[in-house]
Amino acid sequence: MILAGTAIIHRPIEGKVKTVTISKNCSNQYFAAILFDDGKDKPESSTDGKAIGIDLGLTHFAVTSQGSKFDNPRILNKHEKNLKLKQQQLSRKQKGSNNRTKARKKVARVHRKIANCREDFLHKLSRRIVNENQVIVLENLNVKGMMHNHCLAKSIHQVGWGMFCTMLKYKAEMEGKIYQEVDRFFPSSKTCHVCLNQVGSLPLDIRFWTCENCHTKHDRDVNAAINLRDEGLRILTCQSPPCGKPAHGAGSSGTGDKACCPDVSRSKGGRKKSTTALSVGQEAYRVREASL
Predict the structure, then answer these.
(1) Mean pLDDT taken over the chain
(2) In the chain, count of helices (H) and strands (E)?
(3) Are 184 and 145 in contact (CB under 8 A)?
């Protein structure tokens, strides 16, 4: 069968074509992914430049160490009513009929619209962050484990944290910039970024808190982003050749120097608990004092 049509090429092909992969989605749209070699060397990564820490969430999709807050677009909620209507129409059609095939394509088009809107938001935000910063630090979230919370599973699924981190990582590598992840058990929200004092407990409903040591009032998310930035820079500093270790590029903190986080063990009930007597604030203070 010969398909006639016009191809939309969104980027000029520069270099030698290696492979061409043809794919088709549920809406009968065809895509050609072209892999080509442009002959350019991969840029070397460097830490010289602006560093940013990003705290991901649900109310605000991303909060940066610079104080910027990007709202969660909640794209699924905007199309949920239309999706429900199309799925109800699909369920009433007789299996194997042409009308059922037409209804299935209508449902697929709504899902495609949701996916396109989500990817558009993530691409634009990740591109902006990579263009404006040299070092990008995030928390290594266990998204798959967080999905077991049935109260938040739907919201976590539609927000797209994993896709956003993937976009940041490959875009930073292409630009010669550094993408760094901090251990998920690092208490970024509970540690004061001014005096490094750590509070014992900080429930999720508390969005602002005051440090008992230096009396600094903190925005929970901004404070977490600042702590992530500082911890990421500390990890990168310890990974540099002067510390006696080979320099690493972008990647997770688990492959290089260990983050300042407590040792974790499991209790009988399966809940993770800390077994480290030294607080993270004291440990970070000792690291900073030793560097001086």
Answers:
(1) 81
(2) 7, 12
(3) no
Tokens, residue 111: 């899902």
Which of 243, 273, 242, 275 minimizes the C-alpha distance to 257? 243
Over residues 194-252, the pLDDT tens digits come to 999 888 888 888 889 888 889 889 999 999 999 999 999 999 988 765 544 434 444 54
Assess contact for 134 and 172: CB atoms under 8 A.
Answer: no
Q: Which residues are catalytic?
A: 55, 139, 221
| Residue-wise burial string across 271-285, b where 16 or more C-beta atoms lie within 10 A, e elsewhere | eeeeeeeebbbebbe
Question: At a CB cut-off of 8 Å and minimum separation 6, what does 197 contact?
Answer: 191, 211, 212, 213, 214, 281
* Separation CA 142–CA 148 (nearest Å): 11
Q: How many whole angstroms separate alpha carbon 106 and alpha carbon 31?
A: 19
Structure tokens at 233: 């820079």
Residue type, 145: G
- DSSP 8-state secondary structure symbol assigned to residue 89: H
Rg (CA), the chain: 23
189's CB contacts (< 8 A; 6+ apart) are 55, 202, 220, 221, 223, 224, 227
> How many residues would you count in the chain?
292
> 207 to each of 14, 61, 79, 250, how far by Cα in Å?
49, 15, 29, 31
- C-alpha to C-alpha distance for 171 and 123, rounded to whole angstroms: 10
- Write down the H helix ranges in 133-277: 143-146, 153-159, 161-174, 220-238
